[in-house]
């Protein structure tokens, strides 16, 4: 076997498009060529993967390696493709069974000693993986986030060796399965904290009851942010789809979030309109 194909996913906004990692080993001077619109962090994976494979007790092939990341027109960023690339090399070099990765997708950054490090955008990847009917292998630190989905099993591994033992069926990993959390934490920001301000409070209550937008206007220090922060406390609980959408945004941004709570953002009053909507140049467009 000199060819292998492993499935993984990228992160594009809130979406997680499928990426096929194709590895071909041929005769020739030892080299590793990576194609498929890979950015710097992905191109650097060849050095991480080489060390991780060797330090996990496997042999890195001393032949010509060509790695294609398909589709070729989709920019690939981040180090989440490390695990898939390493497994592709091991399968193409006959160190792992050819069909051992069937129905599985893999994400995870590799340390030089083979340990798996967490990545961002895990929840978006898990949702796309579930919709595709695949199972997901990922770093143990990301398992709890992916397990927010109901009826979806993931396999959590601490290092490359554990993943390979599972694929060899010498030491199987138990599926990391939990039900979606339905408990909602009570908001610590209560409208009862606001003293006076009867008209703005009445406006908040009407907006919350009718699902209306609300605009507070006034000089700094008059209580606009204080009032706005209390709106979440009088809104109904988020449903499952809303919970997942909020959690996906925080996951992509790599920010902590208590599942089930409504988000509240407080940009500074001097922020420009462009900064308010998330302006800047995307790394994919540089």
Task: List key phrases describing it.
10 helices, 286 residues, 9 strands, 3-stranded parallel sheet, alpha/beta
- List the secondary-structure elements in sequence, H or E: EEEHHEHEEEHEHEHHHHH
> What portion of residues belong to β-strands?
15-25%
Strand order of the largest sheet: 1-2-4-3
Total DSSP helices: 10
Assign a percent range to the helix content. Answer: 25-40%
Number of strands: 9
Mean pLDDT: 90
Sketch the major β-sheet.
4 strands, mixed
Question: What's the quick description here?
Answer:
The chain has 286 residues and is α/β, with parallel strands linked by helices.
Report on the architecture of this protein.
The protein is an alpha/beta fold and 286 residues long. The protein contains ten helices and nine strands. It has helices at residues 40-43, 45-55, 82-92, 122-132, 143-146, 160-167, 198-210, 224-229, 240-253, 273-276; strands at 3-9, 18-26, 31-35, 64-70, 104-106, 109-110, 116-117, 135-139, 154-157. A four-stranded mixed sheet has the order 1-2-4-3. The longest helix is centred in the C-terminal third of the chain and has 14 residues, at 240-253.
């Amino acid at each position: 076997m000199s060819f292998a194909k492993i499935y993984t996913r990228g992160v594009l906004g809130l979406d997680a498009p499928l990426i096929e990692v194709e590895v071909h080993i041929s005769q020739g001077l030892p080299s590793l060529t990576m194609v498929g619109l890979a950015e710097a962090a992905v191109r650097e994976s060849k050095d991480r993967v080489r060390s991780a494979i060797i330090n996990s007790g496997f042999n890195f092939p001393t032949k010509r390696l060509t790695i294609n990341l398909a589709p070729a027109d989709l920019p690939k960023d981040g180090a989440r493709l490390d695990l898939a690339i390493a497994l592709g090399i091991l399968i193409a070099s006959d160190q792992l069974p050819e069909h051992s990765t069937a129905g599985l997708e893999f994400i995870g950054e590799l340390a030089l000693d083979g340990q798996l490090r967490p990545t961002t955008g895990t929840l978006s990847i898990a949702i796309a993986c579930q919709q595709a009917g695949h199972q997901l292998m990922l770093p143990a630190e990301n398992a709890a986030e992916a397990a927010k989905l109901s009826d979806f099993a993931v396999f959590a591994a601490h290092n490359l060796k554990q993943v390979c033992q599972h694929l060899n069926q010498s030491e199987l990993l138990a599926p990391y399965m939990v039900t979606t959390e339905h408990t909602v934490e009570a908001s610590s920001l209560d409208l009862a904290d606001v003293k006076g301000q009867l008209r703005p409070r009445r406006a908040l209550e009407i907006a919350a009851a009718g699902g209306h937008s609300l605009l507070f206007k006034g000089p700094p220090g008059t209580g606009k942010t204080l009032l706005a922060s209390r709106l979440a406390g009088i809104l109904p609980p988020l449903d499952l789809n809303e919970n997942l959408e909020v959690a996906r945004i925080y996951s992509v941004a790599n920010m902590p979030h208590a599942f089930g709570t409504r988000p509240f953002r407080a940009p500074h009053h001097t922020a420009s309109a462009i900064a308010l909507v998330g302006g800047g140049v995307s790394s994919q467009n540089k």
